[in-house]
Request: fold
Amino acid sequence: MKNKAIISFNKINRATIPHYYDYAIAIEKVIEALTKRTGNLYNIYSFEEDWEMIYSALEQMLQNKTDDIEVISPIFDHISSRKIHGSDSEGYSITPSESNNLLYFPTYDVAYANIQIYQSHADYPHDFIFAQDDESVVTFMKEMVEKTRSFMLDGITVLTDTEDGLERSQEEITNQIQRDDVLLEEIVKRDIFRSIDEFFSKSGTFFKTYNIPYKRGILLYGNPGNGKTTLVKSIAGSVKAPVIYWQITEFTSSYSIDEVFQTAKKMAPVILIIEDIDSMPHESRSVFLNALDGATSKDGIFLIGTTNYPERIDPALINRAGRFDRAYEIKQPDEKLRRNYLLKKQVSQFVAAEVVDEIATKTKNLSIAQLNELYMSMALQWHYDKQVDVDKIIEELKENHRKTMKQDWEMEDFDDRLGF
Reply:
C-alpha cells in the first residue's frame, strides 16, 4: 500500500516550495497517465547501479518491437522522443527513445520513465520506476538483467572510459575468425581453447568437479602483429557467452574499474577482455589490483589481458596467484607457421608452388601482420604487372621493420612549415 506523504503535491504552490513544484509536476503527470492506462496506483522507485544496463535492454527491446514493452506516450512535447539508428550504408530505422517516453511492461505491471527534471539551477535527466509493490520491481530488474545478457550474446559489448564516465556500445562480429585460422604454437593454442571451453561448458562443471575456484585469468604478451587480437576475436566469436571488451584510457578511474567488474559479475559467466593492459593509468593501478584480488569479484569471469610491452607491466600483476593465472607469449611465427599462413592465403596463385617454401624461409622475423602485407603487395603487383618480385617486397618489409624499431626515418628539412 502507498503510504501518505508528509508533503502533498496538491497542497503546495510555487510561492511555498518552488523547486519541489517544478520537480514534482512531471512525476504527477506521469503517474496520472499511468493510472489512466491501468487503473492502478503506483509507488515511485529510483535506481543508480544498473541504469546503463537497463537502458541498453530497453533500447534493444524498442528496436526489436517486442510485445512485452508498450510506449504509453511521450512525456514532454518539445523534447525528442524518437531515435534514429543506422547509417547511410546500413540503412536507417526510427524507434521510440528510451528517454522522454513513458514505457509500460504489462507482464510485471511496471513502468519506466527517464524524465528531464527542470530546476532553476540545473536541468538533468532522472530515471524512475513505477510499480505497485517491491516484489514487482525486483522481478522486473532481474528480468532486465537476463534480457541484457541475452542481447549481449549477439555481439561484443564495448566499455570505454571517457571524460563523462563509462560509455557502453554494442558491436557486431561481422568477420568471424575460425579457430583453425588462428596461427599459434599448437600447444599454446590447445591450452587456451581447452581452458576456455571448460570454463563455459555447463557453467563450469569442470571447476566444480575438481573443486577449482570458478574464475580464470590469462595474459597474452608479445610483439605487435602476431595474432593476439586475432586470437581474442576468435575466442569472442566461438563461445556462447557475453563478451565485454574494456577500453582503458587516460580517464580510467577507481569508479570505472569498479563499474566494469560489477557489470561483468552480473553477466557471469562472461569473458572480460582488456587489451593493452599496460596502459592502465598509474594512479588507478592499485585499485585494479584490488579488483583482481577480490574474493568474489571475479567469480564466473574469464579475464583475458593483452600487452605488446610486458616489461611495462607491474610484476605484482602476474606474480601473485589469483590475478592472472597464466601468461602466454605470442611469439613471432616460426618457419612452419609462416608456411601455413602463406598456404592459407594461397600465394601460389602468384608464384610457383615450390617457391612458397623459399618465401617461408626468407620471411624469417616477419610478423603475421607483415606476412599479410606481403600477400597484399604480391596481389597488387600481380593485378597490374602479371608478375611478382617477391624478394624485393620482402626486403622492403624488413627495411621498414628495421626503421620502425630504431625510429630511423629519412626526413627532408623544409623551410615552410604547415602552420606550426
Notes: Residues 414-420 have pLDDT under 50 and may be disordered.
